[in-house]
Amino acid sequence: EVQLVESGGGLVQPGGSLRLSCVGSDIFTTACMGWFRQAPGKEREGVAVIKRVGGATAYADSVKGRFTISQDNAGNTRYLQMNNLKPEDTAMYYCAADRWCDLRRLVPTDFAYWGQGTQVTVSA
Question: I need a surface site. Which of 32, 33, 42, 66 has the fewest CB within 10 A?
Fold first, then answer.
């Protein structure tokens, strides 16, 4: 069974930074990995996605220029560097993965495997 383990969430002031990490147990099943977030009372939304082979990425418009998704050389660990955080970025952040994904869209239904989530709170 594929396992995804996130870490790195926390409380940060507006304008601050955090880096989330997600470690996958199977590099083939997790060939495409994304970050999603869900705030209370809202639907889960896509944040960023990366393909292990080639490293192609895609971002939601709301985070472009502030967030960066990356991966280590082995492709087991993906990162989400979040800069200039805003209160509206507050949410539970989830790592998700699957063998394939379409970078033209960031939808939860494209991903079969999910981590347990890590809370990010942006507040003064």
Answer: 42
80 and 89 in contact (C-beta within 8 Å)?
no
User: pLDDT tens for residues 77-96?
Assistant: 999 999 999 999 999 999 99
Exposure string over 60-75, b if 16+ CB within 10 A, otherwise e: beebeeebbbebeeeb
> Is the CB of residue 69 less than 8 Å from the CB of residue 49?
yes
Structure token pair of residue 75? 């492709």
Nearest to 60 by CA among 31, 80, 87, 32: 80
Nearest to 111 by CA among 52, 41, 34: 34
- 82, 73 contact by CB (below 8 A): no
pLDDT tens, residue by residue, 2-38: 889 999 999 999 999 999 999 988 877 788 999 999 9
